[in-house]
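Ticket #4471: structure output looks truncated?

Reporter: J.K.
Steps to reproduce: submitted the chain below (208 residues) through the standard prediction queue, then opened the result file.
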Amino acid sequence: MHMGFKEWFLISPYVISVLILFSVLVVTYFLERMWVFRREGKFPRKEWNRVTELIRERRARDAMSLCEDTPGVFAKVFKACIQGAGASRADAEDNMLVEKEDGQEYLRKRVGLFGTISFIAPLIGLLGTVLGVLRAFKDLALSGSGGPSIVAAGISEALVTTVAGLCVAIPSAIIYNYFNFRLRAVLVDMNSYGQRLLLLLFEERTER
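Returned output as attached by the reporter:
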């Protein structure tokens, strides 16, 4: 039997409403995180090359100004490193660590929501199915007739909420793993290029 959205909704309106809310949250925050990672988590290759050139030319202030004008967590880490290098290597490393942690928390924000929804949505769908099965048996007991066909029809309708829960949970799990993978890649690059900049700064200093 073909069922439209209205029929799905009427089977268990409260459960379906919660799953619709979850799906809206997933889509909304997926788009928001995509924008954040695209703007803040993208490695600024061109600016990195220019910053290293300025350091080699011993123009640290210009390098910091360039970092200030460049959006993203990488530029903040680079600026913190250059700024701290004016005092000592330890200060440069401490400054970088603070900015890396701030950048990590900013990129990680709301990512856990996808993991939570991927875990909860199937359980809510299952709850709707259990309630639907109970209702089917109750209707059978009240009618006193109809046999297994009536029960089977009721159970097949009740399973709709489980399907709906999985339809929300599976994309949520994929999105959760995708952003965690992106976050790990960003952190690896931040550590790698931060150390490169640190070596370059103090290499230049020793040459003086």
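Triage note (M.O.): checked the attachment and the full token line is present. Residues 13-207 form one domain.
Status: closed, working as intended.
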